[in-house]
Amino acid sequence: MNTLTVRIAAKRYPNGRCAIEELSFTARPGEFVAIVGPSGAGKTTLLKIISALDRDFEGDVQLAPQTRVGFMFQEPRLMPWLTVAQNLALVDPGANGARLAQALERVGLKDCAALFPNQLSGGMQRRVALLRAFMVAPQLLLMDEPFQSLDLPTADQLRAQLRTLWQDSRPTVLFVTHNLHEALSLADRVLFLTPGPSRIALDYAMEAPRPRGLDSPAVQRLAQQLLSEHPDLLRGRLAACTHAMV
Ligand code: ADP
Hints:
By secondary structure, the protein is α/β, with parallel strands linked by helices. The protein has two domains: 4-68 and 137-241, Rossmann fold (3-Layer(aba) Sandwich); 78-135. The chain contains seven helices and nine strands; from the N terminus they run βββαββαααβαβαββα. It has helices at 43-50, 84-91, 97-106, 122-135, 152-169, 180-186, 217-229; strands at 4-12, 18-27, 32-36, 58-63, 69-72, 140-144, 172-177, 189-193, 200-205. It has a six-stranded mixed sheet, with helices on both faces. Helix 2 (84-91) packs parallel to helix 4 and helix 6 (180-186) packs across helix 7. The longest helix has 18 residues, at 152-169. The two termini are 21 Å apart. 36% of the residues are buried. Residues 13, 15, 17, 19, 37, 39-45, 196 line the site of adenosine-5'-diphosphate.
């Protein structure tokens, strides 16, 4: 059974703006799906609909029964008045003692349980947010450009930690990004969206073995190949003669 089935006929905002039109896809258990589209394509709108934060649309979204949904946003959104341990305990009251220590160690934050968010670097705050997203043991994890505006080594480290955490518990992931290399590095499948009103321009299966870093030959080659076939892909447009439209 699929974790997620999305069929959106239309999403219109009250001002008449149509953000999504005829966008459908499914995601299987454990599948890592990246969603790539130009700014304003409707990526955040799509995640809000899937997470039921927005129910005002035509169509339907089905989750497998009892699916726990986790969310990671662009900003870490930690509670500044709570320590790292208390921030994590908010989503998982069992996160204490050896279990907490082990979890923190996995993301390189071994001695940080008692620190407050303002005592952590931006990258460390994202690591706490990443860990928090996994602490609810989600079957579906929605990630909205979670590593944006980080320096390259920090973002690389977080991607490696995400890969490890995902491989351990294998939730279905929807990962929004506008970074093609990041999408090809992490995902099993990349959905490229058209400019708004968005629909899927290309549903691309990524078959190269993991781990594949951003700079790995496989990712570089595939990015180059996709962009030479579809020079406007990141603007959501496919080259005219294609049979890859869905
Ligand atoms: P993305 O995440 O791909 O950048 P969004 O989902 O944020 O795109 O937005 C998609 C489109 O919907 C954009 O044209 C945006 O201006 C519009 N939009 C987003 N939120 C609202 C809103 N609350 N009211 C009206 N239009 C909105």
